[in-house]
């Protein structure tokens, strides 16, 4: 706890002194304030992601950011940073693993660059960490799994893949509950932001989602391009990456234990993203926690590979490699050798498998 508090506090303070605290959050804040002042919510002048002022999250995100728009932007940035720290702590506290593993993951997360960078930027990674943790801990509780997935999807689109997982594994009540909650969020967002906001967001998202051309992102295609490969070959690698992730997730769903298939999907939600920022690796703490609880002590190397002590010397290829290593080992650790019914399908007593 001392290490986490010291590292995060130092990062937040130094960022505040440099005037960069909440860089991404202030982009959302500017968009919301502009909208409430009579302007547009989605500025269509951007061609690439990563620039200040770009907001392209789904309209329901406005419901989360709107209350802070009533405050001074600097105050709002500080409160948002504190909220993210609390979200990270909550996500770790809810991990369905033994106490020793939970403390270890707290330490690994506290010294990881993805967490520090997410909080410095004001990114939503810690919130997604909570929603995925809730889904893992209570995957046999339809309303908890469904609503947690709905909240994650309302913030960012990628967690919607969990709905597909739930449907394929027989958790239909969770799908119904989640879609009902998501429908409420969508209705409220439509009433606030207007029906056109959905089209505007989709248009902007399609234009700025450039996995090869976007600098500083860590998609396999972009990494290949930066290593000197041509655009065509880089695109081939990126498309192959998406296809292999899809295949491996299906294998996990039909051949692995429920917890492994769920965590494989959680990793996939980030690995199939058109843009893969380094702070997305924060979500790897979830499968790392499970692997550690299963006795795979080497899993500590995954977050250590992106720790703050290595910042400045981490090659971009480390990030997609970390995602792929994690995904492959989750599938391997959760593999069920004996053929039979769908191992990931909900069944009486399945909860005994889910919580170590």
Number of domains: 1
Measured on Cα atoms, how large is the radius of gyration? 20 Å
Q: Work out the strand percent.
A: under 5%
Overall shape = globular
Q: Termini distance?
A: 23 Å
Give the SSE string.
Answer: HHHHHHHHHHHHHHHHHH
At a glance:
The protein has 356 residues and is an all-alpha fold. The chain has helices spanning 2-18, 23-36, 61-65, 73-93, 99-110, 113-121, 125-137, 142-155, 161-168, 172-193, 196-208, 220-226, 231-255, 258-271, 285-293, 301-304, 318-334, 351-354.
Describe the structure.
The protein has one domain. The two termini are 23 Å apart. The chain is mostly helical and 356 residues long. The chain has helices spanning 2-18, 23-36, 61-65, 73-93, 99-110, 113-121, 125-137, 142-155, 161-168, 172-193, 196-208, 220-226, 231-255, 258-271, 285-293, 301-304, 318-334, 351-354. Helix 5 (99-110) runs antiparallel to helix 15 (285-293).
Secondary structure elements and pairings:
Elements: H1 2-18, H2 23-36, H3 61-65, H4 73-93, H5 99-110, H6 113-121, H7 125-137, H8 142-155, H9 161-168, H10 172-193, H11 196-208, H12 220-226, H13 231-255, H14 258-271, H15 285-293, H16 301-304, H17 318-334, H18 351-354
